[in-house]
Amino acid sequence: MATDEARLLMLVDDEPAQARVISSLAAREGWHALAVDSCDAALELLDSPQGLEVETVLIDGRVPGEHACEFIRRVKSQRPEVSVLMLTASTSPLLAVEAMRAGANDYLIKPVTPERLAVALKSTTRLATARDELQPLSEKFSPILEFDAMVGTDTHFRTALARAATAARGHGHVLVEGESGTGKEMLIQAIQHSSTRNKAPSRLVKCEGLQHNTLESLLFGHEKGAFAGAFDRQEGALAACDTGTLMLDGIDTLAQDHQDRLADVLDTGIVRPTGAAHGFKIDIRIIASSNRPLDVLVEDSQFSPALYKKLSATRIVMPPLRERVGDIPALTRYFLAEIGELEGMSHHSIADSGLSLLEAYDWPGNVRQLQTVLFRACVHERRESLTAHSFPHLAELFGDADRGESRARGLGVLLYEDDGNIRPLEEIEADIIRLAIGHYRGKMTEVARRLGIGRSTLYRKLSELGIDNAA
């Protein structure tokens, strides 16, 4: 079998140049690629002794032969343990839905970036698939939200939003920290969108995964002939965003020399492209995000103190989802509404058995992972309501999650039966009253006041609904 150091990828692609690029990128991640130029050749190879070692198939959706989705079905039927990735130039969510319903594990949009391919290949490990279900498909959802439209009532989350809204009205640089998937990119775009510079030039640069020279030219620019392969002059993002905002996602991954060079630009206001004899003055605001606390990196001599000082005057920390579990029901219903509006998708509700599983998980991939797990569930669920059966990997991890813990946390009253139908109003009302009695420790006057009814009405309902007020 293929080893962890050299796992086997079958690339179904009839464009030799693209096949070479993807094979090279995959090699960096420890994969050896076998390239074939048709679906028929791929199916034949899968049946061969060498094909038994193939762990992942990546197919370009325009390869001649069978329709890509039919090919995916045949691969999954022939070799169900093999992961399938689909590559396409189309951004249509409908194609993503069709590919995933056929059995694809992920859906990549051309031109695929090195970091996106790395994430997709990493997600095909059996361990990652079993634990995380689906890696980010967040390119399907990229709206810029106003602060008031962001979902969540957690205190730390609302504090972060309040600081971001204040920062948006200012002029200084901003640093947003938090684990991957907590919504940092959403927040830095919201800050820019609400700022006084929102009409000026702006650009989002994702630093992670880019080669050193590529990122250097992307940020600072270069002159023609500055290095081998520099056939034309390239304007850097810093210069392009003069008078506006440059958003740097993943600034903690910048190389040390890039950090020092950026700190100098922010200190002097002068940027000099690589190979240029002179620099020129710019006026720019940086809104940066980091997956890791930069103060810790500074202490470990892994990040420039000068750059950290420039960026951290306004520092915002996004809490991980495991620390805002009470927001999971609202986030779930928000994402389900958004997913239901996509082409080829249906609107889904969620039963309490499904919600219990979502609340029980610790979400290492945070809000982004919740979003993509819901997307996958909606792709495959034909019923109107998502239940525990809609999340097979989570169900395998937790079994039948006990909703009692969620009730104790006050996360909500059960609204749905396991079949997805709404529970009778009488039962919902009884649960609300029980929840209120427990929450206010049996103080009936306070219970009645909070429910907006009189004490006599409350006691009448207790009698009608058969509720023991000592419970």
Keywords:
471 residues, alpha/beta, Rossmann fold, Arc Repressor Mutant, subunit A, 3 domains, 5-stranded parallel sheet, 16 strands, 44% helix
Question: If you had to describe this structure to a student in words, what would you say it looks like?
Answer:
This protein has 471 residues and is of the alpha/beta class. It has 3 domains: 7-132, Rossmann fold, CATH 3.40.50.2300; 155-317, P-loop containing nucleotide triphosphate hydrolases (Rossmann fold, 3-Layer(aba) Sandwich); 425-465, Orthogonal Bundle (Arc Repressor Mutant, subunit A). It is built from 21 helices and 16 strands. The strands form 5 sheets. Strands 2-1-3-4-5 form a 5-stranded parallel β-sheet, with helices on both faces. Strands 7-10-13-6-14 form a 5-stranded parallel β-sheet. A two-stranded antiparallel ribbon has the order 8-9. α4 (93-102) links the parallel β4 (83-88) and β5. α11 (256-268) crosses α13 (305-311). The longest helix has 15 residues, at 366-380. The N and C termini lie far apart (60 Å). Residues 126-138 and 401-411 have low confidence and may be disordered.
Task: Give a brief outline of the structure.
By secondary structure, the protein is α/β, with parallel strands linked by helices. The protein has helices at 16-28, 39-46, 68-78, 93-102, 114-122, 126-132, 155-168, 184-193, 212-220, 237-240, 256-268, 294-299, 305-311, 328-340, 352-360, 366-380, 392-398, 403-408, 425-439, 444-451, 455-465; strands at residues 7-12, 31-36, 54-60, 83-88, 106-109, 174-177, 202-206, 221-222, 234-235, 245-249, 270-271, 280-281, 285-290, 314-317, 349-350, 385-386. The model is unreliable at 126-138 and 401-411 (pLDDT under 50).
